[in-house]
Design a protein that fits this description.
Blueprint lengths: L1 H14 L5 E5 L5 H6 L9 E6 L7 H23 L2 E6 L5 H6 L4 H7 L8 H7 L6 E4 L5 E4 L4 H6 L2 H4 L2 E4 L8 E2 L6 E2 L2 H14 L4 E5 L22 H4 L3 H19 L5 E4 L21 E4 L5 E4 L1 H12 L1
Parallel strand pairs: 1-2, 2-3, 3-4, 4-9, 9-10
Antiparallel strand pairs: 5-6, 7-8, 11-12
């Protein structure tokens, strides 16, 4: 029944005037859903082939799969459907091949012979195979050169190949930490990131495909709610920290548009509702809407929902 529900859901979205953005592969793809994707062409105009490709597979294969899908879509379907296709990135080593046709020189220098070479045909297929740049942004870190490279020698992955290590400065973190150990609140980081994209890639259209992780007011004063069973629903809905997060990040994003001339087209909060997070399961809550897992999944709008509506109306 999953594919039927999904198709009805897309119809409902169109009927209510909300434009759906569909990711084809977000680390898992049920076969029944894959079989039905061909039915969405006259309903969905905005597509993402992959989400955060470095998370699940070697980038070389994913990039060629994306470019092939993009080529087929442009030649066979786009004339009728008039859609757009992109990947949702959180690592920019993947962007260079899709803009310039090859990995950056810094990456080839660091990774060496472990990094495959594109043929001329593959390079031509890759170059320009994005209608938009999709960016998942949550946090910013301090970093410095990894002079010992012990981690790189042991791991040989995308993190160690960067040649950098993350750190605190004088024992102080870059910002307030959330319930997630890796996530710090650094609003100006998103402005710096978007300006980097503008400078390096010629100011392409950008969609912020994920941002937030829903900072939440909690009894331990962390930013995303650790799903504390002692906190009442009423108190959970008072998410002042989440509102502060939205205000600071969106203010910086707005400045990147109005003051820096960055080409931002869309922004998506992660997430609309509390849901199962890949690493944390149901132990953290990330939604604008609280989901009561103990009472038939009833949903309650948090204070941030009302703030968000007012913010959008004022800009």
């Amino acid at each position: 029944m999953a594919h039927k529900y999904r198709r009805d859901y897309i119809n409902e979205i169109q009927f209510t005037g909300i434009e759906p953005y569909v990711t084809l592969y977000h680390w898992d793809l049920p076969q029944a859903l894959q079989d039905k994707y061909q039915k969405f062409g006259n309903r969905v105009k905005q597509w993402m082939t992959f989400n955060e490709p470095h998370t699940f597979v070697q980038g070389y294969d994913v990039l060629l799969a994306h470019a092939t899908a993009m080529d087929i879509y442009r030649k066979k379907y786009n004339g009728k459907q008039q859609g757009s296709v992109r990947i949702a990135f959180d690592s920019f080593w993947f962007v260079d091949p899709l803009v310039f046709g090859d990995y950056p020189t810094s990456m080839r220098t660091r990774v060496g012979c472990r990094l495959p070479r594109f043929s001329k045909a593959e390079s031509n297929l890759l170059k320009g195979s994005l209608d938009f740049v999709g960016i998942n942004h949550y946090t910013t870190w301090f970093a410095k050169n990894n002079s010992t490279n012990i981690i790189g020698t042991l791991l040989r992955n995308t993190m160690s190949d960067s040649g950098a290590v993350t750190l605190h400065i004088n024992g102080k973190p870059i910002g307030n930490r959330t319930n997630s150990k890796w996530l710090y609140i650094v609003p100006h980081g998103i402005r710096s990131l978007i300006n980097y994209v503008k400078t390096r890639y010629g100011n392409p259209p950008v969609i912020i495909t994920e941002n937030d992780k829903s900072p939440q007011n909690s009894v331990i004063d962390r930013m995303d709610d650790p799903n504390n069973p002692l906190m009442s629903i009423k108190n959970t809905l008072k998410d002042e920290k989440m509102i502060e997060y939205h205000n600071d990040y969106l203010t910086n994003l707005l400045a990147s548009i109005k003051e820096d001339g960055c080409n931002i087209k869309r922004y998506f909060v992660w997430s609309l509702l509390d849901n199962r997070e890949w690493g944390a399961g149901y132990t953290s809550r990330f939604g604008l809407y609280y989901v009561d897992y103990k009472d038939k999944l009833k949903r309650y709008s948090k204070d941030s929902v009302h703030w968000f509506k007012n913010f959008l109306a004022s800009t």
